Amino acid sequence: MDAHASRPGSSAPGPTAPGSAVDISDSAARAARELHVVFGRLRRRIRQVARDGDLTPSQVSALTLVGKHGAATASALASAEGVRPQSMAATLVALDQRGLIRRSPDPADGRRQLVALTEAGRARIEGDRRVRQEWLARALQNRCTDEERDTVLEALALLDRLTGPDPGDSPTV
Known about the structure:
Blueprint: H1 26-49, H2 57-69, E1 72-73, H3 74-81, H4 85-97, E2 101-106, E3 109-117, H5 119-143, H6 146-163
Helix pairs in contact: 2-4, 3-4
């Protein structure tokens, strides 16, 4: 049987990239699938916990982006979010109407405006972050034993390794 052909009871994909000769083990494929599903569920559950209900996902994302990176032009935000400038403009109007952002002239180019958080916008982001972190900490406290929380921490250390450079990658300068 071909190494890439599906085996009964196996749904492991073939190579990691077109032309790659490296097979993916059944356990790696299963771990990737389950991790993707669980993280998706966790992300959705954490979003439900905060009071995002009055904002659309696009508005939450734009607000978070401005909070994370500071003042930016609408076109820079649109580019960072991968949306059309017109879509970002509509999102920013809604955030502006709620008093979560403010616009000011760009000192480098007076024809453009910079979008920044207001105090209400900053408080909204910080409050939502705190509510989410508290929910997660309480869920870990109430649903897991000390040993299980230690296992979660060990698993997170392993997952953190996935975010680093691949072995053999040359450092970027």
